[in-house]
C-alpha cells in the first residue's frame, strides 16, 4: 500500500479532539499516512500573531492534500475568516458535502442521499465589505445614488455580492461532471434570481447554459432558494446533486445535516484544481470544546473522503462500514446522537466512541 503525506490542521475548539480521533481511526483503517501538522486559527493567532501562517499554506501546497479541524472566526469584529482565506489562496472553488442517511444517527428521514456542491470563492461570502461611515461606504453610496440603481441609507455597512460567469460555469460544470462520474441523475441549481437579477440571475443563466451541454445525460432543474428549503425539509429524497452559490450552500449544508442526525456526522471537502482540503461541516463548537464529548464522526467521514481522493478506496470503505456498524449497534454513541435519536442512556465520550470504532476496524 502506498504511503501518503498529508497536512493536518487540527484548528480550534473541538478540532483538537476530533482530529486526534480521526488520526486513530485512519491508522486502524490500514491507510499509510504521514501527518505533517500545521497550525491555523484563533489559538495560533494568540501564539504567533497571525491566524494563518505562511508555513501552513506552504505545507498544504507541498502535500497537495490536507485535512483540517474547524477554525473559530470572531463574530462582527476581529480577524477575517481563515477558512475563506485558505479557500481563496489555494483556489479551492468547490465545497463538496455529501448528505446521506446513517441508520441509528437519529435522522428525520432514512432515505436521504444527496450531494451539496457549493461555490466556494464568490458571493457575499467573499467578505468584500465596507464599514458603516468609512470612505469606501460613502463613495459607494454616492455612486449608487448617481447611478439611479437605488438608494442606500448613509449609515449603512455594505457587503458586496459578486457572482461571475467564470465562477458559476466552473462550479456548475463540476456538479455535472460529479453527477456523471458517480452515476447520479439530476442536478438542481438553487438561486434567488427573481430578486437579484444580476448576481443570482447570472448564476441561473449560466447554470442553464451548462445544463444544455449535458442534456440527455443528466437532468436539470432550478429552484428558488426559499421554496427549495421547504421542499428539502418535506422530502429530501427528491434531490440528487444540488449546486449553490456560496451563501445559500453554507446555510443549506447545516439544514441538510439536521435532517440526517446533525452536524456531528456531516463531512465535507474543499476542492480546487491543484489542492484539496477536507473538513467537517461543523464549527469549533466552543460550548463543548475540551470536554471529550464532541462527535468526531464528521471529521472521520471527511477523512474517508480524503482517502477516496488519495485512491485508498478500500481503507475509506472500511471506515464507512465501521461507522455504519457502530451506529447500527447503538451501544456507544456520543451525546448529540443520543439526543437526536431520543434513546437516552449514558452518552459515550469522544474517546470512547473512537476506541469502539478502532476496535470494530481491527475486528473487520
Ligand atoms: P458550530 O458548528 O461550532 O456549533 C453549532 C452547534 O452544534 C453547537 O451547539 C455545537 O456544540 C454543536 N456541534 C457542532 N459540531 C459538533 C460535533 N462534532 N459534535 C457534537 N456537537 C457538535 O457552530 P457555531 O457555534 O455557530 O460556530 C462556532 C465557531 O466555529 C465560530 O467561530 C464559527 O465561525 C466557526 N466555524 C468554523 C467552521 C470551519 O472552520 N469550517 C465552520 C463553521 C463555523
Task: List its salient traits.
13 helices; Rossmann fold; single chain; alpha/beta; ten-stranded mixed beta sheet; binds nicotinamide-adenine-dinucleotide; 364 residues; Isopropylmalate Dehydrogenase; two-stranded antiparallel ribbon
Kindly report the average pLDDT value. Answer: 96
CATH architecture of the largest domain: 3-Layer(aba) Sandwich
Helix content: 40-55%
- Uncertain residue segments: none
CATH topology of the largest domain, which one? Isopropylmalate Dehydrogenase
Number of helices: 13
Number of domains: 3
Helix-strand pattern:
EHEHHEHEEEHEHEHEHEHEEHHHH
Give me the side-by-side strand order of the main sheet. Answer: 2-1-3-12-11-4-5-10-8-9
CATH homologous superfamily classification of the largest domain = Isopropylmalate Dehydrogenase
Biggest β-sheet, characterized?
A: 10 strands, mixed
CATH class of the largest domain: Alpha Beta
Report the radius of gyration as a whole number of Å. 21 Å
The percent range for strand residues is: 15-25%
Q: List how many beta strands DSSP finds.
A: 12
Shape: globular
Distance between the termini: 18 Å
- The helix-and-strand class reads alpha/beta
The unique ligands bound to this protein are: nicotinamide-adenine-dinucleotide
InterPro entries: IsoCit/isopropylmalate_DH_CS, IsoPropMal-DH-like_dom
Pfam family, one: Iso_dh
Organism: Adlercreutzia faecimuris
Keywords: Oxidoreductase
Amino acid at each position: 500500500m502506498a504511503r501518503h503525506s498529508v497536512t493536518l490542521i487540527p484548528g480550534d475548539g473541538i478540532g483538537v479532539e476530533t482530529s486526534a480521533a480521526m488520526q486513530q481511526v485512519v491508522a486502524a483503517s490500514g491507510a499509510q499516512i504521514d501527518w505533517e501538522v500545521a497550525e491555523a486559527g484563533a489559538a495560533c493567532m494568540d501564539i504567533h500573531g497571525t491566524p494563518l501562517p505562511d508555513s501552513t499554506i506552504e505545507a498544504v501546497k507541498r502535500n497537495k492534500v490536507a485535512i483540517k479541524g474547524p477554525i473559530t472566526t470572531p463574530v462582527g469584529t476581529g480577524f477575517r475568516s481563515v477558512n475563506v482565506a485558505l479557500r481563496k489562496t489555494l483556489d479551492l472553488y468547490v465545497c463538496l458535502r455529501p448528505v446521506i442517511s446513517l441508520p441509528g444517527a437519529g435522522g428525520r428521514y432514512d432515505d436521504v442521499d444527496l450531494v451539496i456542491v457549493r461555490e466556494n470563492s464568490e458571493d457575499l461570502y467573499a467578505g468584500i465589505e465596507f464599514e458603516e461611515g468609512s470612505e469606501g461606504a460613502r463613495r459607494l453610496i454616492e455612486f449608487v445614488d448617481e447611478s439611479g440603481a437605488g438608494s442606500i441609507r448613509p449609515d449603512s455597512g455594505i457587503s458586496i455580492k459578486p457572482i461571475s460567469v467564470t465562477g458559476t460555469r466552473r462550479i456548475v460544470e463540476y456538479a455535472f461532471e460529479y453527477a456523471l462520474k458517480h452515476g447520479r441523475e439530476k442536478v438542481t441549481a438553487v438561486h434567488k434570481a427573481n430578486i437579484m437579477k444580476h448576481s443570482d440571475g447570472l448564476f441561473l443563466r449560466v447554470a442553464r447554459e451548462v445544463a444544455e451541454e449535458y442534456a440527455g445525460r443528466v437532468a436539470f432543474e432550478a429552484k428558488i432558494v426559499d421554496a427549495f428549503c421547504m421542499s428539502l425539509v418535506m422530502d429530501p429524497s427528491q434531490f440528487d446533486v444540488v449546486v449553490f452559490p456560496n451563501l445559500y450552500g453554507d446555510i443549506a449544508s447545516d439544514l441538510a445535516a439536521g435532517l440526517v442526525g446533525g452536524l456531528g456526522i456531516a463531512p465535507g471537502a474543499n476542492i480546487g484544481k491543484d489542492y484539496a482540503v477536507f473538513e467537517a461541516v461543523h464549527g469549533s463548537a466552543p460550548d463543548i470544546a475540551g470536554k471529550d464529548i464532541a462527535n468526531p464522526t464528521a471529521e472521520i467521514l471527511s477523512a474517508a473522503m480524503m482517502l477516496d481522493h488519495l485512491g485508498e478506496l478500500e481503507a475509506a470503505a472500511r471506515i464507512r462500514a465501521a461507522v455504519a456498524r457502530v451506529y447500527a449497534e447503538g451501544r456507544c454513541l456520543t451525546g448529540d446522537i443520543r439526543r437526536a435519536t431520543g434513546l437516552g442512556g449514558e452518552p459515550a465520550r469522544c474517546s470512547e466512541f473512537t476506541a469502539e470504532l478502532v476496535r470494530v476496524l481491527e475486528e473487520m
